[in-house]
Amino acid sequence: MTAVTLTGTPVVAGVGHGAVLVPGDRPHVPSDEPARDDAAELFAAAAATVAGRLQERAALASGSASEVLSATAALVQDRGLAALVAKHAKTGSGPATATSRAVDELVAMFTAAGGLMAERVTDLRDVRDRVVAELLGQPEPGVGVPSEPSVLLADDLAPADTAGLDPALVVGIAVRLGGPTSHTAIIARQLGIPCVVGVSDLPDELPDTALVDGGTGEVVLSPDPAAAASRAEADAERRAASAAWEGPGRTADGHAVQVLANVQDAKGAERAAQEPVEGFGLYRTELSFLDRPSEPTVQEQTDVYGAVLAAAGSGKVVVRTLDAGSDKPLAFADMGTEANPALGVRGLRVGRRLPELLAHQLDAVAAASQTSEATVWVMAPMVSVPSEAAAFAAECRTRGLTPGVMIETPSAALLAERVLEHVDFVSIGTNDLSQYTFAADRMSAELGDLTDPWQPGLLVLVEAVARAGERTGKPVGVCGEAAADPALACVLVGLGVTSLSCAASAVRPVGARLASVTLEQCQQAARAALAAADPASAREAVAAVLDA
C-alpha cells in the first residue's frame, strides 16, 4: 500500500512508529436477555467490581491518569445511574439491558445539556461497556495490551483507556476527535506518548503500520519502512539528549528560566521530585478531595499539603486554592445546577457563597508551610478583576503567605498590571485562557483548532501579561499545557515568561530545548509566532528560527 499522510493537531511531540493497534470491540447486549428479579442487585455488584478495578489502577497511576481513573470509578457507582438501572429493571429488563437503557437515557440528557455535561458522554458509554461486559462475563473492553511497539488509532479514547496505556508498548496515538486540551491529549502528555488529535480523515479501514509525529501533526499510514525507521531513530536521539538534561533551567547563553512540575498529590509530587525540577509550579489541591463527601478539617488538609511540601524539599511550591466547580465538582462545594458551569461559580468565585472554605484552606497551607523547608506561594484560580486579587492577597498576607493569582480570563490578562499591584506573582493558565478568549469549549473536538495554544491571539495576551510583569518587576509563569511543548516553551520565554510548569514527563524535553537556544533566538521565535496567521504557520516559522 502506498504511504498516505494525514494531518491533525499535534499535542505531544515525538515520533512513534509501529503496528496499528485499535480498541477492541465493545460488548453487545443480546436482544433476548431474560428479565431478572435481582437485576438491580446484579448491576450493583458488577458496578462495584468495575469501580474496584479502576480504583486499583488509579492507586498505581499518578497525575491526570490517576484523576480520570478515580473520576470514572465514581461515575460507575453514581446513585443516579443506579436509580435509572433499577427503574428499567422494574419494567422487565435484564441487568445488561437495564444498564444499557439507563446509560442511553443519561447520554440523551447530558447531550441536551451541552457544555461540560456533554463532555461526560464518552465516559458514560465507557462505564456502560465495562459494566455490561462484567454482567455478561465478557473480557473487559477497551485497548488491549499489544505484543510489540504499536501506534493506537481510534475515533476517540475513553479517559480510562488512555490512562491505562503502557508507553513502552503504545508508542504513538492518533484520534479523529479531541482537542489540544482533551483528556486524551493531557494524559498522553503525562505519559510522554507522541499524540495527534483531530485527524478527521482517518479512514475506517486501517493499514498494518503507521507513524505518528506529535511535533508536526502528521499521521503516515503504511509509511515506507526505511523512512519511518529513520524518523523514529532521529527522534530517539533527540529524546536521549533530553533525558540527559539535569537542569537548572536556562538558555544556552545563561538566561534563567525556572522549570517546574505540575502535581496534584503527594505520590505524584514524590515522582516529580525525581526529575530535575526546581519545585512545583502548580499544585492542584482540589484533586485530593474529589471523593470527599464533606469538607476535610484544617488538620486533615494540613497533613495532605505537608506531604506535598515535603516532597519539594527546599524548592518552590505554588499552591493553587480549590478550583472547585465546572469540570472538578466537589460534593462539599456544590454550586447546584448551572446553565454553563464553565462560566459559572468556580474557582475563587466559590468563596462568595462559601467563604469558610478558602479561610480553612489558607489556614491549612499556612500551618503546613511553617514546618516545611519549601518556599510556599499561594495563588487563586479564576480571578477576573483587580478587586478579587486584592481581597485574596489580603487573606494571604494576614497568614504570612505570598499571594498570587491565575490569569485565565481575558479581563485579567488585559488588566494584568493592575492585578499585579496587589499580588506578588501571576501564573497563566493557557487552557482556560484559550477557552475564554476564543469562546470555544476546550474539550470540543470541532473547535480544537481554536484552543490550540499556538494561536497568535492567545500569545498576544501572554505577551501582555509578561510585559506587565516586567514593568512591575514581578514574576510571570505559565502552568497550562502550553508549557509542556518544548518549542512553544521557547516562544513563551521569548515573550517574557519567567517560569514554566508542566507535566513531570515534559520537564527534561522542555529544559533541554531551552538549553539548546539563546534568549535572542527565543525572542525571535516569539516575534515569528506573533506575526503568524495561524497555529500551523506559527509552528513552522518558529521551527525555522530555533533550528537555524
Estimated radius of gyration: 23 Å
Average pLDDT across residues? 89
Portion in beta strands:
5-15%
Q: Write down the oligomeric state.
A: single chain
What topology, given as strand order, has the largest sheet? 1-8-7-3-4-5-6-2
SS-derived structural category:
alpha/beta
Low-confidence stretches: none
Please give the number of β-strands.
16
Distance between the termini: 36 Å
Main sheet overview:
8 strands, mixed
Anisotropy-based shape: globular
Tell me roughly what share of residues is in helical segments: 40-55%
Tally of helical runs: 22
Write the layout of secondary structure elements.
Blueprint: E1 4-7, E2 9-12, E3 15-21, H1 39-60, H2 63-76, H3 79-90, H4 95-113, H5 115-119, H6 121-136, E4 150-154, H7 159-163, E5 170-175, H8 183-191, E6 195-197, E7 209-213, E8 218-221, H9 225-243, E9 258-263, H10 266-272, E10 279-284, H11 298-312, E11 316-320, H12 350-353, H13 355-370, E12 375-380, H14 386-397, E13 402-407, H15 410-414, H16 416-419, E14 425-428, H17 430-437, H18 456-472, E15 476-478, H19 486-495, E16 499-502, H20 507-515, H21 519-531, H22 535-546
Parallel strand pairs: 3-4, 4-5, 5-6, 9-10, 9-16, 10-11, 11-12, 12-13, 13-14, 14-15, 15-16
Antiparallel strand pairs: 1-8, 2-6, 3-7, 7-8
Structural summary, described in words:
The chain is of the alpha/beta class. Helix content is 46%, strand content 14%. It has 22 helices and 16 strands. It has helices spanning 39-60, 63-76, 79-90, 95-113, 115-119, 121-136, 159-163, 183-191, 225-243, 266-272, 298-312, 350-353, 355-370, 386-397, 410-414, 416-419, 430-437, 456-472, 486-495, 507-515, 519-531, 535-546, and strands spanning 4-7, 9-12, 15-21, 150-154, 170-175, 195-197, 209-213, 218-221, 258-263, 279-284, 316-320, 375-380, 402-407, 425-428, 476-478, 499-502. The strands form two sheets. It has an eight-stranded mixed beta sheet with strand order 1-8-7-3-4-5-6-2. Strands 9-10-11-12-13-14-15-16 form an eight-stranded parallel β-barrel, surrounded by six helices. Strand 7 (209-213) and strand 8 form a beta hairpin. It starts with a strand and ends with a helix.
